From TrEMBL:
Keywords: Transferase. PROSITE patterns: GNAT (PS51186). GO terms for molecular function: N-acetyltransferase activity. The keyword Transferase applies. InterPro entries: AcTrfase_RimI/Ard1, Acyl_CoA_acyltransferase, GNAT_dom. The keyword Transferase applies. This is Ribosomal-protein-alanine N-acetyltransferase. The lineage of its organism: Bacteria, Pseudomonadati, Planctomycetota, Planctomycetia, Planctomycetales. It holds the Pfam family Acetyltransf_1. Coiled coil: none annotated. Residues 20-164 form the N-acetyltransferase domain. It comes from Symmachiella dynata.
Length: 192
């Protein structure tokens, strides 16, 4: 992620960068957060879902604000060695303006070599825009959770950002077992 000259660059994608203030979520933000949540997700959290989560000691809510208007939010958990994003969204009218990138940069700034070294999250298999956003923000898919969601039979991709990308787990590459059998079959066909 690079920011310079008011532009945000992600692997060749250029968009206007809007400067946001990122701050703790407060109770009066809830109406705007719920509006963004409903416009962003088919299976959205309810106000009770947010409040239940935010009552947990290790759960943090933050909002991104432009000119006094909440335009994005993130809910994450603090764990001993990582941060775990539970919910993350930017209002439709403010997407592709580097707001999500600035929110990720805020989370990355909370990591340290001594304590929390990674950020994890799950993203629905059908949510391609989110997958691409997190991939362009240096997250890597490291696994699949089958039938992860209660509201649908959808799988989730586990994505991870690490301060130390040299970590072997981070450089996970899926093994294509089918290719081995295709080569074997090709070899048998050539012999006949």
């Amino acid at each position: 992620m690079n920011s310079d000259s008011g532009q945000y660059h992600r692997q060749g994608i250029k968009s206007v960068s809007v400067k946001v203030q990122i701050r703790w979520m407060i109770r009066r933000d809830m109406a705007e957060v719920l509006r963004i949540e409903r416009e962003s997700f088919e299976y959205h959290w309810t106000e009770e879902d947010f409040l239940c989560c935010l009552r947990q000691r290790n759960c943090i809510g933050m909002v991104a604000e432009v000119d006094g208007q909440v335009v994005g939010f993130m809910i994450y958990e603090l764990h001993k060695t990582r941060l775990h994003i539970l919910n993350f969204a930017v209002a439709d009218d403010f997407r592709r303006q580097a707001i999500g990138g600035q929110m990720i940069e805020k989370l990355v700034s909370k990591l340290s070599q001594q304590r929390r070294k990674e950020i994890t999250l799950e993203v629905r298999e059908t949510n391609l825009p989110a997958q691409l956003f997190f991939q362009n923000s240096d997250f890597v898919a490291v696994g699949v959770l089958r039938d992860h969601y209660e509201d649908s039979a959808e799988d989730a991709y586990v994505m991870k950002y690490r301060l130390d990308p040299e970590d072997a787990m981070y450089n996970f590459a899926p093994h294509n077992r089918i290719a081995k059998y295709e080569k074997l079959a090709d070899g048998l066909h050539e012999e006949s």
